[in-house]
Amino acid sequence: MFCVLLSVYKKEKPEYFHEAFSSIWFNQQLKPDQIVLVKDGPLTPELNAVIMRWKEILGDVITIVNLSKNAGLGAALNAGIKLCKYELIARMDTDDVAFPDRFEKQVSFMIEHPEIAVSSGQIEEWDQGLCKKLYERHLPLKHEDIVIFAKKRSPISHPAVIFRKSAVQEVNGYPKIYPEDFPLWVSMIVAGYKFANLPDFVLKMRVGDALMKRRGRGFLKGEVSVFRHMLRLGFIDKPQFIYNVASRAAVRLSPWFAKKIFYRSFR
User: Fold this and answer.
1) pLDDT reported for residue 186
2) Which CATH superfamily is domain 1-95 in?
3) Which of 145-159, 169-183, 242-256 has the lowest mean pLDDT?
4) Residue 156: which pLDDT band, with cuts at 50, 70 and 90?
5) Is the four-CA dihedral 207, 245, 189, 176 of positive or negative sign?
6) Which DSSP string do the residues of the chain spell out, in sequence order?
7) C-beta contacts of 225-234 below 8 A and 24+ residues apart
8) Any idea where the Glycosyltransferase 2-like domain is (predicted)?
């Protein structure tokens, strides 16, 4: 038994939202026993209409959490985790599309490997209309390699992650740092939890130029906060911290054409 956890906010597109839900339910070989959807603040009438449609389809399978104001992804997910009934929680973004065998593969892996607290799979990155595949993101598979990888970059694909509820709660959930997933994985590694990644592609992620354009100066500021978090935990030393900040600044502050080259080269 497992739960799928999502958070939606007002700027998301209703048609992408509906497509994500279809991939979770109609198109999945292994359907979730519970879906927890956090409404991160007031939504548009169009998004609420999609939610009402899925409530009619799913009935008691879906649990809806209403936040009175936009709290951000980390806080919204922490609120949702509390209402997940099952130990295994699979994350999903509300504009991505899961492959039909995603949950069957990931849930089976976690059942067969009780020592693993967090895992994800490989993801394909597509344009906004899911018409053209742009990149593939490949991650290391074994815990030892994941720890090395995590010194510089997030070792888990957040939209495709599955984790054990008790393990995430043991480290107090997502921290108040943006981006919120990377520091959570580091906190769990430092706490002694084991990680893995599947070699299989499990998700189509909408990327396109819009995502890369958002990852500029503001995103760099958040990444520096993540690296400070890693330094405080003793996960990296000061030379590694300086290297991480310098290399990220080179990407985030570069001209648009150079940013596209960096992004293509370091997936």
Assistant:
1) 98
2) Spore Coat Polysaccharide Biosynthesis Protein SpsA; Chain A (3.90.550.10)
3) 242-256
4) very high
5) negative
6) -EEEEEEE-TTS-HHHHHHHHHHHTTT-SS--SEEEEEEES---HHHHHHHHHHHHHHGGGEEEEEESS---HHHHHHHHHHT--SSEEEE--TT-EE-TTHHHHHHHHHHH-TTEEEEEEEEEEE-TTS-SEEEEE----SHHHHHHHTTTS-SS-GGG-EEEHHHHHHTTSS-S-SS-HHHHHHHHHHTT-EEEEEEEEEEEEE-HHHHHHHSSHHHHHHHHHHHHHHHHTTSS-HHHHHHHHHHHHHHHTS-HHHHHHHHHHT-
7) 225/177, 225/178, 226/177, 226/179, 226/182, 226/183, 226/186, 229/175, 229/177, 229/183, 229/186, 229/187, 230/151, 230/183, 230/186, 233/186, 233/187, 233/190, 234/190
8) 5-166
Q: pLDDT, tens digit, for every residue of 68-96?
A: 999 999 999 999 999 999 999 999 999 99
d(CA 13, CA 147): 35
Nearest Cα to Cα of residue 28 among 7, 48, 2, 9: 2
Amino acid identity for residue 263 in this structure:
Y
d(CA 73, CA 178): 9
Cβ-contact 134, 125 below 8 angstroms: yes
Bridge pairing between strands 97-98 and 133-137: unpaired
> What is the C-alpha separation between 143 and 147, in angstroms, rounded?
6
> Rg of the chain's alpha carbons, rounded to an integer?
18
**Is 217's pLDDT higher than 80?**
no
